[in-house]
Structure formats: structure tokens, C-alpha cells
Design goal:
The protein is mainly alpha-helical and about 90 residues long. Strands 1-2 form a two-stranded antiparallel sheet. The radius of gyration is 15 Å and the shape is globular. The termini are far apart.
């Protein structure tokens, strides 16, 4: 199955075989943010790989539960900071 998407402003670029390009992050030079962005991608792939085949399992609440106590410290900090900015 080959999914093509020629939209320049799409959140995911699936144009290249065996490659997914995430286009959802702001530009930054802050090391902690860059590492948080990378950890998000890594955590999302790992979360989906271990998820049961139940389609209802893949949601924000379960992803956040997966992150609790995990090795993704920069990602957890980014989430905490973003919630404070929203409030």
C-alpha cells in the first residue's frame, strides 16, 4: 500500500518509501525542545507498536499513560510546559 500526499502543508509527509516525515513541530534552536520533538516521534512509534489491535486503544489518554514514568523526560517536560501555556 503506497499512500501519496502532495500537500505542502500536511502534518505528515509520506512521499518517500519507508519514511514518515513529521511536519507538526515549530522551529526551534532549544536543545530541550528538539529532543522533546524527537522523543515524541520515537514514543509514538513505540506506543503504536505495543498497542493491542483494538482500534479504541490508540488515543491521547492511553498515550499519556504510556509516557508516565517513561524514559521520555524531554517530551514530558514539553507537555507540562504546553499545558501551563494553554491554561
Amino acid at each position: 500500500l503506497l499512500v501519496t500526499n502532495s500537500e505542502r502543508y500536511s502534518a505528515l509527509n509520506l512521499q518517500r518509501l519507508n519514511t514518515i516525515e513529521f511536519r507538526i513541530f515549530r522551529s526551534t534552536l532549544k536543545y530541550e525542545c528538539i529532543m522533546g520533538y524527537l522523543e515524541f516521534c520515537y514514543a509514538l512509534v513505540n506506543f503504536c507498536n505495543q498497542a493491542p489491535m483494538d482500534a479504541g486503544y490508540l488515543n491521547t489518554n492511553n498515550f499519556e499513560s504510556y509516557l508516565v514514568g517513561s524514559e521520555y523526560t524531554n517530551l514530558r517536560k514539553l507537555i507540562a510546559i504546553s499545558r501551563k501555556e494553554i491554561i
